[in-house]
Specification:
By secondary structure, the protein is of the alpha+beta class. It has six helices and six strands. It folds into two domains: 103 residues, Homing Intron 3 (I-Ppo) Encoded Endonuclease, Chain A (Alpha-Beta Complex), CATH 3.90.75; 51 residues, no CATH class. The strands form three sheets. Strands 1-2 form a two-stranded antiparallel sheet. Strands 3-4 form a two-stranded antiparallel ribbon. Helix 5 crosses helix 6. It starts with 7 loop residues before the first helix and ends in an 8-residue tail after the last helix.
Length: 176
């Protein structure tokens, strides 16, 4: 039997991490659930529509629909949903802010964002280098490696296939 869904605001707030220390000044509230390909939080609303978490936060905070074209961040942290870091704007004002603050390059989507700069990166450059250094394949005829891809995947909280891609140089090739 399926459990009843939590009330809408509670479902939203369960996905917000208010732990201090995130963002440029340590005051960002990070969205911990699904993100779109640009790194912005997203959630299905009560009608089942996929919406940006910043727009939902705006509506929950100010009890009004977001009338703006875009919700912009003063902190430039895409996963941030802290209402004090959000303001209504247009695409033009958002682009001008990004030019002024030096974050415009991120608009070119993730083809330009490499390594730790990518919003979906789960590893640091140091961790990738460590994986490449400590991996030891099983010797010929042996059944198990001393530091296998499976063990590394478990240690770093990623899949074995990602470990294999790192070792082959398919991903994080900028560190080869």
């Amino acid at each position: 039997m399926r459990l009843p869904r939590k009330p809408w605001p509670q479902r939203f707030w369960d996905k917000v991490d208010k732990t201090p220390g995130y963002g440029p000044h340590g005051h960002c509230w990070l969205w911990t659930a699904s993100c779109d390909t640009d790194g912005y939080g997203q959630i299905r609303d009560t009608d089942g529509r996929l919406r940006k978490a910043t727009h939902i936060m705006w509506e929950l905070t100010y009890e009004q629909l977001c009338a703006a074209e875009e919700i912009c961040h003063t902190c430039h942290t895409r996963a941030c949903v802290n209402p004090s870091h959000l303001y209504e704007g247009t695409h033009k004002t958002n682009a001008a802010d990004m030019m002024r603050d030096g974050t415009r390059y991120q608009v070119l989507r993730h083809q330009m964002l490499r390594g730790e700069q990518h919003p979906r990166a789960k590893l640091t450059e140091a961790q990738v280098q460590e994986i490449r250094q400590i991996y030891t394949p099983a010797p010929r005829g042996a059944r198990h490696a001393t530091m296998s891809q499976r063990i590394l995947a478990k240690r770093y909280g990623i899949s074995r296939s990602v470990i294999a891609q790192i070792l082959r140089g398919d991903i994080w090739h900028n560190l080869l």
